[in-house]
Design a protein that fits this description.
Layout (H helix, E strand, L loop, with lengths): L46 E5 L4 H12 L3 E6 L3 H13 L4 E5 L5 H15 L4 E3 L14 H29 L7
Parallel strand pairs: 1-2, 1-4, 2-3
Helix pairs in contact: 1-2, 3-4
């Protein structure tokens, strides 16, 4: 997308009734760098996990990492079409893409993601904890709603991943989690 093709405000109002949303339903379509980002090999030979890698910032990171030379495991909740599209972009960059559906609130799923990355790529160098979704709370005092929705998916999943990656790193000098 060139500067002259970029959408300009005002943008049309959008609302998706499911969480997380779907990229195909967005107008205008987001720019994830599919046609604009050119890599330079800064991650050549590396392997990465990108949670929430099916769309949004996660898709942009997965594409950029692949164009920089990394193989990418794309962990996502349930947006299969979005994940397949991201996987195609990673493979078009000449890198391996592994898609893994599931919920990172589950300790077992976090372990599976790390194991699958090491199995597929032989190493793990980068963990991008990006899985999240945006929501509006009209009354910020409704702490119970926030605690049941955003907090468990974001924070505990992130902590589970970090712990699992640290364990993997200690077993293999080739793997690092930062």
């Amino acid at each position: 997308m060139t500067e002259t093709e970029r959408p300009t405000p005002p943008m049309p109002a959008q609302q998706q009734n499911q969480t997380p949303g779907r990229t195909a339903d967005m107008t205008p379509r987001p720019d994830h760098g599919e046609h604009s980002y050119k890599g330079s090999g800064r991650l050549a030979g590396k392997a990465a996990i990108v949670t929430g890698g099916d769309s949004g910032i996660g898709r942009a990171v997965a594409i950029a990492f692949a164009r920089e030379g990394a193989d990418v495991l794309i962990a996502y909740l349930d947006e299969d079409d979005d994940a397949r599209a991201t996987g195609r972009w990673v493979e078009e960059a000449g890198r391996k893409a592994v898609l893994l559906r599931g919920d990172i609130r589950s300790r077992e799923h976090c372990n599976e993601i790390v194991e699958r990355a090491v199995e597929a790529f032989g190493r793990l160098d980068v963990l991008v904890n990006n899985a999240a979704y945006q929501m509006v709370l009209r009354n910020c005092l409704r702490k119970r709603v926030f605690a049941r929705t955003a907090w468990p998916r974001g924070r505990s999943g992130h902590h589970l991943f970090h712990r699992r990656c640290r364990r993997k790193r200690s077993r293999s000098s080739a793997s690092k989690c930062r």
